[in-house]
Amino acid sequence: MLLSPVGQSLESLDTPALLLDLDALDHNIALMAERIIHQGGKDWRPHAKAFKSPAIAHLLRQAGAIGVTVAKVSEAEIFAASGIADILIANIVVGPTKTARLAALQHSACVTATVDHPDQLPALAEAARAAGSTIPLLVDLDIGLHRTGVATTEAALALADRIAHTPGLQLAGLMGYEGHALAIPDPETKRSTIQAAIARLAEARAAFECAGLPCPIVSAAGSGSYEVTAGLPAVTELQAGGGIFGCMYYLELCRVTRHKPALFVLVSVISRPAPDRTILDAGRKAFSNHGAEPTIEGHPDCRIRMLSAEHTTIENPRDTEWKIGQKVKLIPGYSDLTFVLHDRVLGHRDGRVETAWPILGRGALQ
Ligand SMILES: Cc1ncc(COP(=O)(O)O)c(C=O)c1O
């Protein structure tokens, strides 16, 4: 059984534990809200697939977010049940169970999904008819990532026209994800790659308008690109979300500026087999190294030599004074793939746990 850790000092917590530094989180949220909403004049619909926690979604709402983006119908159900009224499933919903759930969900929130092929439409329309609802849809345009998305403006226009003329479906606009640009090291090349990607959305939007088709939403961006995308006129809303955690993926790989590490995994030293080697009580089952190496807070000179399922082997300078049982804080490689390994995240300030938020969407994969 999990006893409530609220009020405990960080030193007294058992490990491994997922920690959220609430001051750093507030700093990162304010930074993103400032760039996206206040400077960029855009709507902010942060992607919630990383944290899957309604409590964090409501913090973002308080900071000005209009709702959340998710990847799965089951995630949308969790956020809708918590009172989030405007949700984008930035994904294609296929299969009778999922389309029925999406159609039913419209009775409790506005839940928009994406499409990139005319064959996806009949099942969505039939589900809407059966549920007595209307499903809002964005046309997904491939703007360079080469994952989902129609390939051309002409195909986007044809699909938009089909949606607009299908009962039960509502054309809500366009979506594209410039995910191929996030890790480009040179800032100028990154900027021009993002601009070129978003120009494809601008072209498609103009084509919709020219054809008399509505396009109120043009949705794009991740945390690794939002600083540029927020300044581009064609976009109406940004999906950047995970950057609020300041994990190594965003700090090192995507080079976001001014974000602070906010997400940590508290771990214990369980062995010092050699002066230059330290073993921690957590490994791949407690944090992710996707995209970037995790680092130990305050110890940039220590390197992960081996990551096992339950252990981390650290190569440290010989004079590192870690004792058996000592706790250290590790900044995960990728926050997104770290949250799903934990039941809850402990928000702390001034060395004490203030909140224990369940990661309700953990396992919400359908
Ligand atoms: C469709 C889509 N939008 C946005 C994002 C960016 O999310 P985040 O800001 O959490 O990195 C992703 C990330 O994979 C994505 O797949």
How does this structure look, described?
The two termini are 27 Å apart. This protein is α/β, with parallel strands linked by helices. Strands 1, 10, 11, 12, 13, 14, 15, 16 and 17 form a nine-stranded mixed sheet that branches. It has helices at residues 22-39, 54-62, 73-81, 96-105, 121-131, 153-164, 187-210, 226-229, 248-253, 336-339; strands spanning 17-21, 43-44, 68-70, 86-92, 110-115, 135-140, 169-175, 217-220, 237-238, 263-274, 277-280, 295-296, 303-307, 312-315, 327-331, 344-349, 352-358. The site of pyridoxal-5'-phosphate (PLP) has 11 residues, from loops.
Task: Characterize the biggest β-sheet.
Answer: 9 strands, mixed
Strand content: 15-25%
Uncertain regions spanning at least 5 consecutive residues = none
Q: Name the helicity range.
A: 25-40%
Number of helices: 10
Quaternary state reads single chain
- CA-to-CA gap between the ends? 27 Å
Mean pLDDT: 97
**Outline type:** elongated
* Strand/helix succession: EHEHEHEHEHEHEHEHEHEEEEEEHEE
Structural class computed from helices and strand pairing: alpha/beta
Radius of gyration: 22 Å
Which molecules are bound besides the chains?
A: pyridoxal-5'-phosphate
Beta strands, count: 17
